[in-house]
Amino acid sequence: MRARRARSAVTAALIAATLVATHSPAAVADDITTTLSFAAHQDDDLLFMNPDIASDIQAGYNVWVTYLTAGELPCESHHPCGMDYADTRIQGVRAAYAEAARVPNAWTYEEMRFGGHPVAVNHLNGTNVHLVFTYIHAAAGPEDNCGDLYRMVRDDSYVARPIDHRPAYTKATFVGMVRSIIDHVGPDYMRTQSTIGHRERRRDGVADNVDHVAGAILVADANVDGAGNTVVRRDEYQGYIITDFPDNVGGYWRDRKHQIWNRYKPFDHQMGPTSWDNVMGKQYRPQGRIFWPGTPWVPPGDFGNC
Question: Does residue 75 or residue 4 have the better pLDDT?
């Protein structure tokens, strides 16, 4: 795999260790279930959409996950930062999904074009697991509390420049790129984070991450017909607020979620030995936030300042 055009020598060596010459996916039958999940950062899927995604993989589904930002940190006060940090997080999710599929951590890189944009895609060899990386600049306060997803939601003319130096996006072209992913994958259903996460505050007053909300809104915008109605079923998953909720996942799937998460953590220097272990027994997908085909989609009008 090659997830960007230029890498540090250390990162290149890490990636070369898991490259193979060809991608050998499992056979995809016409009637196999296909799922497409969109996460803002390389860990949101593991924390907030598992064990559902892991269950898809175990069932042999065709599983696609798209990361809507690079998940990087600014270099003013963090190390590693920028592309180097984004690369380590990619290594983390690759290790996590190899664990989810119970196969060796061996991937093949492919640059695919969606909506005319070249996009980095990783295929887990011998499986139907695919990871897509957009490298859009993430919100990382206090240096930048907003991020480019938020800016695109709020300003149609804003130009977002991926940190891997691929071509820039406006809101329209980013939504078009996401729509092209949906069309290519042809999912039976999709997952996003909560489009109302800015309202879903924890007891300590913290709302969901701005990237979580903005990314979900942009995906929802891409998943509508000419009348503004939902095309593919889309389920919203709650984020930070679930730390206040009781456990609702136990037994085998709690253990699997934890095993998968533990494969990610060593690659992310912001994570300690027990980081986010308090959500291993939680996953919340409110019934009222499932958008069935034909359901009108209206973006929240109160998604204000970041």
Answer: 75
Residue appearing with tokens 């907030």: 48
- Say if residues 70 and 147 touch (Cβ distance below 8 Å): no
How far is Cα 111 from Cα 132, in angstroms, rounded to an integer?
10
pLDDT recorded at residue 26: 54
Q: Are strands 129-133 and 117-124 parallel, antiparallel or unpaired?
A: antiparallel
Q: In the structure, what pLDDT confidence band is assigned to residue 29 with cuts at 50, 70 and 90?
A: low
The structure's pTM equals 0.91
Lowest mean pLDDT among 12-21, 105-114, 203-212, 284-293: 12-21
* Residues in CB range of 300: below 8 A, 6 or more apart: 195, 196, 198, 199, 217
What DSSP string runs through 106-117? -EEEEEEEETTE
CB pairs under 8 A, 24+ apart, for 250-257? Answer: 250/281, 253/51, 253/54, 253/55, 254/51, 254/280, 254/281, 256/51, 256/54, 256/100, 257/46, 257/50, 257/51, 257/54, 257/283
Domains and CATH numbers, the chain: 38-291 (3.40.50.10320)
C-alpha span between 109 and 124 (Å, rounded): 9
- Tell how far CA 293 is from the center of its chain: 22
Reference 109, options 15, 185, 9; nearest CA is 15
